[in-house]
Design goal:
The complex is a heterodimer of chains A (280) and B (242).
Chain A (H helix, E strand, L loop, with lengths): L1 E5 L3 E5 L19 H10 L8 E5 L4 E4 L3 E9 L3 E2 L2 E2 L6 E3 L4 E3 L5 E9 L29 E2 L26 E6 L8 H9 L2 E7 L3 E7 L10 E2 L4 E4 L4 E5 L6 E2 L3 E5 L1 H8 L6 E5 L1
Chain B lengths: L4 E6 L2 E5 L6 H16 L5 E6 L3 E6 L6 H13 L9 E9 L8 H8 L3 H9 L3 E6 L6 E4 L14 E4 L3 E5 L2 E4 L4 E3 L2 E5 L20 E7 L1 H12 L7 E4 L2
Parallel strand pairs in B: 5-13
Antiparallel strand pairs in B: 1-2, 2-4, 3-4, 5-14, 6-7, 6-13, 8-11, 9-10, 9-12
Classes of the chains: A mainly beta (280), B alpha+beta (242).
Chain lengths: 280, 242
């Protein structure tokens, strides 16, 4: 068990998501930076779909009630164990009573905390990912007790050395595919998408990331069509919106670009004001 | 048979587009295609998601070759017949159009120069087709609203619309399955629950089914709501034959 002493800005349980319920209008959800989450699980020898804590911008304060092991990946939010600075991307053994806290955001935006065998909160439609209206709450809150397994020393695996490449955290290029409506854009607008720098607007969350710069939109609304994580829509006001993990399953705005899987991980680590470019 | 367009959507998904229209022939063709894919042995298909006139197929990224999959899809489509569609149900959905619930009914009546009773009659008469579920978990996209009831969405959306609210927005009508912000005009409320996380099949309606609204008074609405909350309300329905 883990006691939540402080919740942090937006901390939620996430896993690989709720796949196969999209025809009921259920978002996929799951970790925004799936790459970092996979690494956090791999460091502990967990399965890829083990549930982790997704920590956004400012961290929670947690007390462990059992012996376990943890790993922290993604954003660097100055993690501390019993007040002593610990590092990302390493397996760390935890003893009953230990307190994990976080400090200043140094790089990235979302950090992932894995525990041995994953968090054991309720699974609904095959996933523990928190989403308003599906799970009881959309984030963890102060006073919550999160269920986890206890480790037995004999089970602990060690990775002697694992070279971690975190360069993507500082990348500002998003690899994209042409969206279904890309070809309907006039040539000049198509070129503008790749020439211009786009700034992350303050409207960014688990549902979508909006960008500041506008592109004069000459396209009509489309007949409501499927969308998915990474779909970049062009709104009537000319703003680009990149859909993220908690996005709706269908949409009526032209879909001009589609982010690659790697680009979704990169964007998930961006914060208001960051500059980005799209690249085919 | 329609002329379909196949597009690569991302590194592991293919989008299939039908002629871009709201049309039940297209809906039934999509459903038949989808059923055939689900019945076939396509182990690398993760999930499918359709809307009015397109179908998005998500594949396992580790086992995906666009040229091969596109050819397979084209071959499957050749053998699709309307027989592939599963049984369709007509659901009779109780709606209370009392002004307590239908907070925009009076304004709508004024705008349309109809009395409230005429709006209720025109709204509850047609048999609506469920094209797909999207926007919110359990939100049905319904086709078949009478033209005279088409109403542009409100310029400023409400921050909270109650669960069960029955509303008109643009050329569509729908039921809010959960409390949500929204810009549609609210004309009534249904006590039926369209999305239930405690059920294995969270929404009893599926694409291709039909809906008809049955006007009920406040008292009946309350009674049905009590039964729904207790999990014992039986929604009136009949099986439709193609």
């Amino acid at each position: 068990m883990v006691d939540v002493l402080r919740a942090g800005f937006y901390t939620s349980i996430q896993d690989t998501g709720r796949v196969g319920y999209q025809h009921y209008g259920v978002p996929v959800s799951g970790t925004m930076d799936a790459r970092a989450a996979l690494l956090a699980n791999t460091l502990l020898g967990n399965t890829a779909d083990a549930a982790v804590l997704e920590i956004t911008m400012s961290g929670p304060k947690l007390q462990f009630e059992v012996n376990t092991a943890i790993a922290i990946t993604g954003a660097n939010i100055s993690p501390m164990l019993n007040g002593k600075r610990i590092i990302n991307n390493h397996r760390i053994n935890i003893e009953k009573g230990d307190i994990l806290s976080f400090g200043k955001l140094v790089s990235g935006f979302r950090s992932y905390l894995s525990v041995y065998e994953g968090f054991q909160t309720d699974a609904i439609f095959g996933s523990r990912s928190m989403y308003q209206g599906i799970t009881k709450s959309r984030t963890i809150t102060k006073g919550d007790t999160l269920q986890i397994q206890q480790t037995h020393k004999a089970n602990t695996k060690h990775f002697a050395s694992l070279k971690i490449d975190d360069a993507y955290l500082n990348t500002s290029t998003l690899g994209v595919f042409k969206g279904p409506e890309f070809d309907k854009l006039p040539r000049t607008k198509q070129e503008q998408l790749f020439k211009q720098t786009f700034t992350v607007a303050k409207e960014n969350n688990r549902m979508a990331y909006q960008f500041e710069e506008a592109i004069a939109n000459t396209l009509d609304a489309i007949l409501t069509a499927p969308v998915t994580v990474g779909t970049v829509q062009l709104t009537p006001s000319g703003k680009l919106i990149a859909l993220m993990k908690d996005c709706q399953t269908t949409g009526g705005y032209p879909r001009v670009l589609q982010l690659s899987e790697a680009a979704i991980h990169i964007l998930a680590q961006k914060i208001t004001g960051n500059s980005l470019r799209f690249k085919l | 048979m329609f002329n379909l367009v196949y597009k690569l959507y991302n590194a592991s998904a293919i989008l299939i587009e039908w002629p871009q229209q709201i049309n039940t022939d297209i809906l039934h063709d999509i459903l038949a295609f989808k059923a055939k894919l689900q019945a076939g042995n396509f182990i690398n298909i993760k999930y499918l998601n359709h809307a009015y006139a397109s179908l998005l197929i998500h594949y396992d990224a580790l086992n995906f070759d666009v040229a091969i999959e596109q050819q397979k899809l084209k071959d499957v489509y050749k053998s699709v017949t309307s027989k592939n569609v599963s049984e369709q149900t007509l659901w009779k959905i109780p709606v209370c159009y009392d002004l307590d619930f239908g907070i925009d009914l009076k304004a709508l009546a004024l705008e349309k120069q109809m009395d409230v009773g005429a709006i209720i009659e025109r709204h509850s008469k047609p048999i609506y087709t469920v094209f797909f579920i999207g926007f919110l978990p359990g939100f049905l996209y319904l086709g078949g609203l009478e033209k005279r009831l088409f109403t542009p969405r409100k310029a400023t959306p409400r921050l909270a619309i109650n669960e069960g609210a029955v509303a008109i927005g643009g050329e569509q009508t729908g039921i809010y399955p959960t409390k949500s912000p929204g810009g549609w005009h609210i004309i009534g409320n249904s006590p039926i629950r369209f999305f239930d996380v405690l059920k294995e099949v969270p929404c009893f309606v599926k694409a291709g089914d039909c809906i008809q609204f049955r006007p009920v008074n406040l008292k009946t609405h309350q009674d049905i709501k009590t039964l729904v909350d207790a999990g014992v309300y039986q929604i009136e329905s009949e099986v439709l034959h193609g």
